[in-house]
Amino acid sequence: MEGDGVARIPRHVAIVMDGNGRWAQQRNLPRHAGHKAGVKSVRTSVEESVRHGIEVLTLFAFSSENWKRPAGEVSLLMDLFMVALQREVKRLKRNNVRLRIIGDRSAFSDKLQQRIAAAEAETADNDGLVLQIAANYGGRWDIVQAVRRLATRVASGELTAERISEAAISSELSFSDLPDPDLFIRTGGEQRISNFMLWQSAYTELYFTDAYWPDFDARAYTAALDFFAARQRRFGTLGEQLPTTNPNPSDPTD
User: Fold this and answer.
1) Which one is catalytic: 4, 66, 95, 215?
2) What average pLDDT does range 175-191 have in this prediction?
3) 28 catalytic, yes or no?
4) How far is the C-alpha of 79 from the C-alpha of 107, rounded, in Å?
5) Rounded to whole angstroms, how far apart are CA atoms 14 and 60?
6) I want to staple 132 with a disulfide (CB 3.0 to 4.6 A). Which of 45, 58, 88, 238 is the partner?
7) What is the pLDDT of residues 194-207, one digit of tens each?
8) Mind listing the domains of the chain with CATH numbers?
């Protein structure tokens, strides 16, 4: 019920799609085979998000730190990104999904930047699920860009330093027009956020699963949503200040 501190369905789900390479290695396959297999899980997560009425789905496809990986793997990832944009955009359009790419595009080839712009333009009129792909994105990079823009406004006299607030910083971040992530999912067994949406995830519920990304199917996604549905979101208040008791009383946090 509304107002009881228990959120049933997240408005915004953010996923770190981890474990592709290890999934492939377990099968004696090259790492890029795992990345290709993971495309199926992307489709599933989009379909399930639409089915559950989620407003925003953000997928961490390529971090600003991933450039440190072997050049061959990075090249294959870029090729896969290019092909996926071309193949999936028609499916997104049919399903009323609007595509956005967040991150620093300047490091991508001109051809990939053009493909990104074309894919976004093709789905711009869709008013259903917003699918954000974080590519060459980092949470610290996002904050730095916001601070630079605010500093420019201060230098020009448009803004004073005293007027810089949390709201001012938030307004300069990526996807400032969308809700912050309610649920963070990371596959692959690691339990860290890896520089993903640092500012926006201040009160995000964190869910970690051992399933590798290519194995993250509809049932696994539902398990994550069930976890979220049982959470009491207090945002700094006490549980007894809310109308109902904590559905997960073993959790002492906040």
Assistant:
1) 66
2) 97
3) no
4) 14
5) 8
6) 58
7) 999 999 999 999 99
8) 12-137+181-235 (3.40.1180.10)
